[in-house]
Amino acid sequence: MSVQKALNKEVFLEFSTVDPIPLEAIATTFESAGLSSEIRVLYRHIAELVCNIYEHSSPEAYEKVNWSLSVHWDGRALVVTIKDQGQGIYKSIAPLFDKPLSPLESLNLAVNRHNSPFDLVSSYRGLGLKGIIRAVAGGAIESFQIESDGYLFCCTDNSRHIKKTHKAVGTKVQLTLRFNGGVK
Fold first, then answer.
1. pLDDT tens, 105-114?
2. Which residue, 37, 52, 105, 123, shows the most beta carbons closer than 10 Å to its own?
């Protein structure tokens, strides 16, 4: 089945961290939209990103953070976007250090855990994001973007860079999965 036919409208889901982690509901929604085989490539990474929201989006476990997941066909690729209205990467990482850390350093730490001067935290932070970056490098995912605290990290199979953006609330992640001719 063509991805364009399966995704004739955007799939959009909204959740809150006071609800249980909705991984089964996400899988069921994709299956209902006719995208179960396409999402199988991304599901492990989607699950990791969703779990990151529950673990890192708020300094307190009981604090409610709203988040959403959407999927759309942009004419050439399947685009999955996960956005939360949480504290952002900077406020999640900065308290772990004795010395001041900038939002740029925080994002760089989250996506480049092995290249970090902060060895104490780098041994257990960013493992899921590193897996997504490896999937991009291996060609399973076309691109990965994460935006938080006024910075955007972009990753394709041949490029990685961080650029300054407007400061928005929370964190936004985008995974792009390209299909030859739009057919899987």
1. 888 888 875 5
2. 52
The whole model's pTM is what? 0.86
Q: What is the pLDDT of residue 39?
A: 75
Contacts 24+ apart (CB under 8 A), 55-58: 56/86, 56/87, 56/89, 56/92, 57/17, 57/84, 57/85, 57/86, 57/87, 57/92, 57/170, 57/171, 58/17, 58/86, 58/87
Q: Which domain holds residue 60?
A: 3-91+132-182
Other CB atoms within 10 Å distance of the CB of residue 62: 7
Burial status of residue 68 (CB atoms within 10 A of its CB: 0-12, 13-18, 19 or more): middle
Looking at every residue in the chain, the average pLDDT score rounds to 83
Q: Answer yes or no: is 117 within a domain.
A: no
Question: Is residue 77 within 8 Å of 178, Cβ to Cβ?
Answer: yes
Say if 47 falls within a structural domain. yes
Domains of the chain: total: 1
DSSP-derived letter for residue 96 is G
